[in-house]
Structure formats: structure tokens, C-alpha cells
Input
Amino acid sequence: MIIRKYEKNDLEQMIAIWNEIVDDGISFPQEEPLDNFTGEQFFLSQSYCGVAVDDSGSIIGLYILHPNNVGRCGHICNASYAVLSSHRGQHIGEKLVRDCIRKAREIGFKILQFNAVVETNIHARHLYEKIGFIQLGVIPQGFRMKDGHYENICPYYIVL
Output
């Protein structure tokens, strides 16, 4: 597996992976799936998009990296990660996060912040803490799950 910058011909697979996470309704805040047009616009609007490519050339995971805010807070970035469900548990997410940290430093960001890690997303939380992210606290009932109930969210950050 390699991680590289996405290319236009990756978009169809990227959109499918992204939409799988959106449809799960348990970790991404978006509710609407991407189509070919909105997907291309969405991925183009990021500071960087990395894709994990397996030996057959298929996209099995991705991340997006972008500023978390503007102006005086523009040095803080934010990212999201998505791994194809059939490839979870193979440490692809960890490789994506580590590549994202490297790329964020290259771009010139100083801090990587996650605004809304769902408290029950224990695999992501364990990974972030293993890498060195610091939890800022808990926001009670900050995330509405697909089934309508609310879960706490845990903001995290790491100094780059």
C-alpha cells in the first residue's frame, strides 16, 4: 500500500468511500452523500487530499486536510479520514493519520485539531491518543447519530 496525492481519476472511488462513512451516520457530520459534481468540488476545495492505494491500484482509504479556521487561527488545520469498510482493522487509518501530520507540517500548519470525534468511536480515539493527540474535553450530546440519538464528542489536537 502507498499513500499519495489524489488524482482526478481517483474521484469515483473516493466519493464511494466517503459516502459509505456518511451513510453509516456515526462519525462524519455530513448528512448528504456526494455526487460526481459535489464530490469533485469538495475534494478540490481541500488544502490536500491523500489516498491509500493497494497493490491492485484500488483506493482503500483517504484523508482530507484543510484549515480549521481563518485569519489569526489559520495555522490550525483539520482533517477527516475514511477507510473502505472491507479494509478496516489493517492499520490503514494510522498510516493515513501519520501521512496527514507530515503533509500538514509541509504545508505550514502548526496544529492539527479534530473538532468532533464521537466519544463512542473508540478505535479512532485510541489511535489518536497512541499518536500523541491530546483530548480537550467532552462536548455533551454534540453529535446526532443517524438513528437520531445524541452522543458526546471529544475535540483533540496535536502540535505539529
User: Anything to note?
Assistant: The two ends are 25 Å apart (CA to CA). Residues 92-107 form the longest helix (16 residues).
